[in-house]
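Researcher: Good morning. I'm working through a list of sequences from a screen, and I'd like to move beyond sequence-only analysis. For each chain I'm collecting a predicted structure so we can compare shapes side by side. This is the next one on the list. No need for commentary yet; just the structure.
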Amino acid sequence: MLNATIWKPSSEITASANVTGSRYVVTDPGVLTLLDKNTTMTVKSSSSKDETCVALASTKDAAGWVASEKSYQRISGLTSWTELGVQKGEPTKNQSGSSDDANEVAFKDSDMWTSVKCGNGSVTLDSKDPAVSTVAIMDLGSHKASATISMHWVRSEVPDFAMPFYLSGGLLAVIAVLCASVFAMPPHKRRKRIVEGKATASTGPSFAEQVEQGIIGNGSIPAEVPPTGRKRRRHAAHRRSSKKTVPAESAESPTIIDPASRNLVADQQSGEAGEIEAITDTESTSVISSDELQAYFSRLAQEVNDSEASDSSAADDVDNQEEN
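Model: Good morning. Structure tokens for this chain:
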């Protein structure tokens, strides 16, 4: 924002330099178009009576005009945005034609210039889109004259020094949006890996691993059996109690007896001994009276009736609940 307002580079550049001790001043090639294609040159002499001229010419013609001069001044460019760089020029040798013949013609009347303008005390000349080899040559009137030379450019394209700052600001904005999107995510998504790692660390060995390690079955640590999702019915115990428990049959294979391998005499003797023992046991059994036997059967009948009544009532309750 500041670069576009108060820090914005100026489109108009004016640079000047003071020249003294030389009659002729020549610009180096490329100085006229240093900042823009159009240039305005102004020469102000210290004396308003001296005639000052400014001309545009090719590099070769300007060098031929100052070939006979022992010294002249060169404008080499800009030392700052407000100052022109001035250097001392050396005369050239072996130029075509003599310098005396060149100087016999007045500066403003020479046909070596593409454009020339003269004035007393001050003169201004505009250069519009000159060639690359075009230079400006200035005549101050005498070797003892001093003058101030100014060059003014109006830049059509101003350099944009704020572009790096714009790029940096855009990059920071993108980073800020990415960070905001990351922190706006739900915690369970953003910390998914951390939560999964904690869950894995807190989970104990599985049932199969406990069996393999010998933890289950050795009586040292009771096995924890997870409850199943099936709900237990309230009156299921009554139905199960009413059903008779069928003992599991033995899975043993049948025994095959070979009659040829048995001792029948020994079996007969053992059978007679068993009959004798049974008779002895019968004789030793106490005698039960008929009254005691009748009382026993009545109690047994009463218990059977009570059990059947309770089972039937429980079954009716279960059926009623299922119908409801």
